[in-house]
Amino acid sequence: MSATPRRPAQQIPRPRVGQVRGGFQLGTSQIKRVGVSFWHWGDIYHWMLTLTWPRFFALIGMLYFVTNLGFALAFFAVPGSISNARPGYFPDCVFFSIETLATVGYGYMNPGSTYGHIVASTEILLGMVEVAAVTGLLFARFSRPTSRIMFSDVAVITPFNGVPTLMLRAGNERANLILEASVRAALVRRETTQEGQIFTRFYDLKLERDQSGVFALTWTILHRIDESSPLYGKTQQDLHDEGATLAVAISGTDDTLNDFVHARQTYAAEHIFFNHHFADILSDKMEGNVRILDYSKFHDIYPDGTEGGSMPGAALAHPG
């Protein structure tokens, strides 16, 4: 009888990676920068690209509203600036400002004085600049290459060919290929020097396979824990005490976009399960000429010595 799979995502928070508001996520820790200026004019383009879509559109809407309102007030401040506008009726100034900014020019209202022409000309120039900038930002955001590489919620340490091995899974959620894919893994932990200083060290982990010509389906990433490994002789409590974090990054060329893509993930000590192995997600049975790859079991793990899968890493231990 098969053992019930353990679903760690229901017991501990999913590992997060990358930037969070006001800081940087590394495992379960958030690193916040202090002592540096938050804003720099040279970073406006980068800042606009990193905004979420709701915030980006909210900012564009606010810019549109403020621009039209400002020029409408300028028209309203000098009576007679707009021909055929109802005297003292502010909405006419607002709608004329909108038409001028968009260079629509319906023809009913038009600048009625030299001052009105100057304000309208300024608004048209600013409107062209804003439209060009927003168009460029939209194109840059939509055309920015992204990947849909998923990582297992946890990593495991289990014997593999007689050697304790660190394992984690990656999968390509898109039905395309990532060419010349490469993966790197590093262990980050705190150490105390002989002088008594606490120092954060990065150790690159040697992987069984760190490159592949094609990454199409799943990839079980393996690191043998031998005498040369920074994980050699460590227990889960040791990893907790050292504040250890496992950082993994995959990069390659998307064959659809023909551009470089990457993805990364981090695992804190509580995301690394000792004496567990992943469930086998590749069916041995053929349905016609088709074998089933079950992503619903992608994150499932079993304690060693129980059923529930093939030998650890049997589900596509190599990419493709």
UniProtKB/TrEMBL annotation:
One GO process term, biological-process aspect: regulation of monoatomic ion transmembrane transport
Domain of life per record: Bacteria
Domain Potassium channel intervals: 71-142
Occurrences of domain Inward rectifier potassium channel C-terminal (ranges): 149-302
GO molecular function, one term: inward rectifier potassium channel activity
Transmembrane segments: 56-77, 115-140
One GO location term (cellular component): monoatomic ion channel complex
Gene3D superfamilies, sorted: 1.10.287.70, G protein-activated inward rectifier potassium channel 1
Recorded topology in the membrane: Multi-pass membrane protein
The entry's keywords: Ion channel, Ion transport, Membrane, Potassium, Potassium transport, Transmembrane, Transmembrane helix, Transport, Voltage-gated channel
Subcellular location per the Swiss-Prot or TrEMBL entry: Membrane
Chief place of localization: membrane
PANTHER family, per the entry: INWARD RECTIFIER POTASSIUM CHANNEL, INWARDLY RECTIFYING POTASSIUM CHANNEL 1, ISOFORM F
Record's protein name: ATP-sensitive inward rectifier potassium channel 10
Organism annotation: Duganella callida
Taxonomic lineage: Bacteria, Pseudomonadati, Pseudomonadota, Betaproteobacteria, Burkholderiales
